[in-house]
Each structure stands twice: as C-alpha cells, then as structure tokens.
Amino acid sequence: MAEDNAGAGAAQDADAMRDAAETARAGFAEHVIDPARRAGEAMRASGQKAADNGAAIGLKIIEQAEQNSREAFDAMREAAKAKDLSEVMRIQGEYLREQGQRSMNQAREMGELIMQFGREAVAPLRGGKPDQG
C-alpha cells in the first residue's frame, strides 16, 4: 500500500512538473516569442514601405527635372525668336523668376512627401496607422 501511495505521489509530482513546464512555455511564448515575432513583422513592413516610398521619391525627382528641362527649353526657344537684346533680357528675367518659384514649390512638395513617407514608414513600428498630419 505504501508503494501505491508513493507511485501516486510520483505521478502527481510528474503532472505538476508538466503543468509548470507548460505554464512556463506559454508565458515565454506570450511575453518573449510573440512580441519578437510582431516586432520582426513590423520591421519588415516598415522596411518595405520605406523602399516603396524611396522609389516614389525618385520618380518625383525625375518628373520635376523633366518639368524644369521643358521650361528651360521653352525659354531658350522664346529667346531665340527675340528681336532684340532687351526682349532676351525680359525673357531671361521671367524664366529666372518662374524657375525660382518653381524650385521653392518643388522643394516644399518634396519635403511634404518625405514627411508623409516617414510617418508611413514608422507606423508599423508603432503598431498603428500613419498620422494624417
């Protein structure tokens, strides 16, 4: 009979050890593995968003360069048709004034785009959606 009690006690001890190990494993998964997995997924999403946005910025730069080139050639054509030096100077002055304004607008547009993309890239790391600011 003493052997039966010892065997039952050993089985209970083994069950308690299994339960404790399962609880420890579940706690480890909940507090270490799952957060690490979510962080890895967020980093991957953030990196992909940054790569996509980098490509969009590159395309925007090309579009702006094309626009600036078209405007410069238009001004050169107009200057080539000018009848005198004062008309050439007027055309050149208008072009420079317009190009200055265009450059400021393009710089502002790029700054806004970069800020927007920055917010979008870090949103997955924050666990949410990008700010709409």
Q: State the end-to-end CA separation.
A: 77 Å
Mean of residue pLDDT values: 84
Element-level helix/strand string: HH
Biggest sheet, open or closed, and with what strands and sense?
Answer: none
Q: How many β-strands, per DSSP?
A: 0
How much helicity do the residues have?
A: over 70%
**Beta-strand fraction estimate:** under 5%
Which class of secondary structure composition applies to the elements?
mainly alpha
Overall, the morphology is: rod-shaped
Q: Please give the radius of gyration in angstroms.
A: 34 Å
Overall description:
This protein has 133 residues and is an all-alpha fold. Helix content is 91%, strand content 0%. It is built from 2 helices and no strands. The longest helix has 79 residues. The protein is rod-shaped, with a radius of gyration of 34 Å. The model has no long low-confidence stretch (mean pLDDT 84).
At a glance:
This protein is mostly helical. It is built from 2 helices and no strands.
Structural key phrases:
91% helix, mainly alpha, 133 residues, 2 helices
Describe how the helices and strands are arranged.
Layout: H1 2-80, H2 85-126
